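quick one before i forget lol
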Amino acid sequence: MISAWHLCGDNILVEQMPIFGGYSGGLEETAICDVASTLASFAVMGADIHLGGPIHVRWGTTTNRQSLQISSHTAMAIDTNTDVLLANQYYAMAGPCTDMNLLEIVAQTMCDTVCGRELLSGVASAKGVKMNMVSGMEARMLGEASMATCGMSTSEVNEIVEKILSKYEGRYHNAPEGLPFNRCYHVDSVEPTHEYLDVYDMVLDTVAECGIMF
């Protein structure tokens, strides 16, 4: 599916999210489709920024292993051979205030950053299909992970992401639902609860053990 809309002024962002395991096929075929759609968004639709995000046909996320492979290869191919602006969507399986959600974010952020994407568009927690299941803490984790990844090599990132993936990809069948915004944030002050801060700190310790320090 491709859609386009104006961001501000005359700048156009085109969104395209191929489905791995659907009509696009497997890893290689979906990556080819992703590259082709990215190029078409600029050549045919006059995009200023392309927003991708391969979705797994079964899991409905961008943080699974296959989607990370597809989006990473696509970004590296486009970034190596062009100077266009690339963005990526974030659809995590777990909900806010869970370690799985934040680990998913770190894994995709590291891939997107090292592979040359200029804009990271996130985060839609709980696959972006439930009301009030998103908060600023997920975006904070995305930003911190991206800054921590800057300057790392693809081989370093690949090794770390493998470790992070091992901590959540076996939990897809019983992913934690998490808490809605009004239960993981103080609504009046718009500040995260101590519970969410504790979860955040716990994940920082976990990813530090995997090799990335914030």
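fyi The mean pLDDT is 94.
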